[in-house]
Amino acid sequence: MANWVKNQSAAAWVSIFAGVMAIVGLIIYIVNSTTGYLGSTQMNALPVVFTILAVLLIAAMVAAGNKASHWVSYIILLAVIVLLAVSVSVFVSTRTDVAGDQWFIPGMDTPEKGACLNGSIVGVVFYGISMLAVIVSAFMGNFTKDR
């Protein structure tokens, strides 16, 4: 285990960070969708499935290290970005009515909708950090240190 940790490059650590941020965004999405103002609505499972697939792809890339060719690595990282972007899109699109009520319609703003909207914004920020970290890791090069 210690050798595995020593052999990981900065790109691998940034990718692991991206996976952790995606999981945090997913947890916030699930909590936000099942409690409070949106507790009585049905949660869309698409962000859950796509985020789990993205995290599994990140884990596979880190585990494979430099064994995969560069083209395969780039295609997988592009797939991770697409999966996370679709997750964010669904996350945001299901909250537009809450944002409209809270920000643009006088008298429709309630503390419950405000809390829902604030939680949604935090979740989208974590997804954004995750996507940014994946993009940065794509430009950093190899996932393991050369010996």
Automatic annotation (TrEMBL):
It comes from the Bacteria. Keywords: Membrane, Transmembrane, Transmembrane helix. The chain crosses the membrane at residues 12-31, 43-65, 71-94, 115-140. This is Uncharacterized protein.
